[in-house]
Amino acid sequence: xxxxxxxxxxxxxxxxxxxxxxxxxxxxxxxxxxxxxxxxxxxxxxxxxxxxxxxxxxxxxxxxxxxxxxxxxxxxxxxxxxxxxxxxxxxxxxxxxxxxxxxxxxxxxxxxxxxxxxxxxxxxxxxxxxxxxxxxxxxxxxxxxxxxxxx
Length: 151
Fold this sequence. Notes:
- By secondary structure, the protein is mainly β.
- 7% of the residues lie in helices and 38% in strands.
- The chain has one domain (4-150): Elongation Factor Tu (Ef-tu), domain 3 (Beta Barrel), CATH 2.40.30.30.
- Strands 1-2-7-6-5-8 form a six-stranded antiparallel β-barrel. A two-stranded antiparallel sheet has the order 3-9.
- Strand 5 (84-94) and strand 6 (100-108) form a beta hairpin.
């Protein structure tokens, strides 16, 4: 049985690397688009989701990892980048229009991630494309409390 806990979140501007909008020439279509085939081969199909992440600040709260739904260790997804560890966790985003979007928390492990670190209150979410969402918009983020703890 899934137990979801809710936390208020604010949409924040990220680095633009996941989506490719940040101008990093190493990842012109974004890191998520590059990583999708590797995750699919390992059993996680991200194809239905938008190739980018939503950065949601849950400040003043923070999160701690309990038990990931998926973890992939030592994944070499780019020729000129070091291998990384990734975990994914179930989540839902409740939008101000009442819509609920299923998604996954995208968690490149900080100890294997070479750059673009996130603040302790930021969760990166992979979900479906959401058209009328802007920076500083408020959402309610639901996380599986068996996978992620909010404090």
